[in-house]
Amino acid sequence: MLQLQTFVFNPLQENTYVLFDETKECVVIDPGCYEASEQYDLADFIETNQLKVVKLLNTHCHVDHVLGNAFIKEKYKTKLYIHPIDEATLRAVKVYASHYGFFNYQDTEPDAFLKEGEAVTFGNQSLDVLFVPGHAPGHVAFYSAQEKIVIGGDVLFYNSIGRTDLPGGNFDTLINSIHQKLFTLPDDVTVYPGHGPETTIGYEKRTNPFCALT
């Protein structure tokens, strides 16, 4: 059975997720841990639960979602997976991180690339890769049909959507991603977003002021 642990890290209140099951293999998605205390909290959870980190995944590569990439890669000797289109987004972080107050950001390289239609596997779990650009050019989401969850990054929020005024963002592309990739999932799928509380596909289809289907 899949289990999920959420951490809220850094001043931008980013959601970091650890997914694991009875095999004790786990993946870390969007590690936003920057301060030593945040890194400790994440590592303590992993070690207390005797988990083995087998993959590091980024839904997209804006600064608040990648602050802990180097920490996870170094500590657990694991590979970083991103969508190839977002490689430029990742490389840009070192240029502007200090403007957000992250003066000690550690740059890191991707080790492998994600493609839509492929699956990320760990333990007894399988996450389908969905390509959902609009907030970032190489944005992906991770969907488990068996567990009825999607790790959506900064695409769809509780009664909101991701911003599109950052480099590579596009409002029409984002709305299309939501309608064509997320709103085609079952209504009872829980969305775990990059910021804020979880929601469901059905609720957002009915009520989201930006993209509800009316």
UniProtKB/TrEMBL annotation:
Q: Cite the entry's keywords alphabetically.
A: Hydrolase, Metal-binding, Zinc
The Metallo-beta-lactamase domain sits at 13-195
UniProt-listed InterPro entries: MBL_Glyoxalase_II, Metallo-B-lactamas, RibonucZ/Hydroxyglut_hydro
Taxonomically, the superkingdom here is Bacteria
- Mark the transmembrane ranges: none
Question: Which cofactor does the UniProt annotation name?
Answer: Zn(2+)
Give the signal peptide, or none: none
Do you know which Pfam families this protein is assigned to?
Answer: Lactamase_B (PF00753)
SUPFAM superfamilies, A to Z: Metallo-hydrolase/oxidoreductase
Give the GO molecular function terms: hydrolase activity; metal ion binding
* PANTHER family in the record: HYDROXYACYLGLUTATHIONE HYDROLASE GLOC
Name it: Glyoxylase, beta-lactamase superfamily II
Q: Which organism is it from?
A: Ohtaekwangia koreensis
